[in-house]
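Quick one - inputs below.
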Amino acid sequence: GDSVTQMEGPVTLSEEAFLTINCTYTATGYPSLFWYVQYPGEGLQLLLKATKADDKGSNKGFEATYRKETTSFHLEKGSVQVSDSAVYFCALRDTGGFKTIFGAGTRLFVKA
Amino acid sequence: GAGVSQSPSNKVTEKGKDVELRCDPISGHTALYWYRQSLGQGLEFLIYFQGNSAPDKSGLPSDRFSAERTGGSVSTLTIQRTQQEDSAVYLCASSPDSIGELFFGEGSRLTVL
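Output:
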């Protein structure tokens, strides 16, 4: 079945450091890929998405590129801020099955 | 508001009691999901409704769990004879189509004593 694997956390960085959170997937169809974010005390919300191969999703300085050849959708940000501290979830939605599958989440701590 | 609404936001119950959790999706959204998020864990898929199709119940952990969606709108997740391991945040999400993003509610935190 479809699955999403993302790097385990927590990830601790200093402010202005470069961030990468790895995400790989397994899917039988051609999924849409997403990153969701859960800030402390808040509900999950969409951060960015890509719907086909080679698409790049971007938002709030974060980027992720849909790589079909490596079945990956790694999240990157060039300079993190304390306010980026949150849990980040990689997810896929297979157009055939409609179900959205989430990774386990990666907790990010950014120190001032 | 225009977002996904869940109730109750907090529920404390005794082991063995039944509980009902309600989700009111965004108007017009055809897809509705239930997930469970245990402390420090990821999102565990429970059940998925899409329009008038039969629901995908493949994630329900036991026959104590059931869900229905009336009139293609409001959904109720029922947990019978609750156990302590059912303690978690139950999240509802809706989506306007089969490929787009999910819009999440704030969740219902269930504590089973």
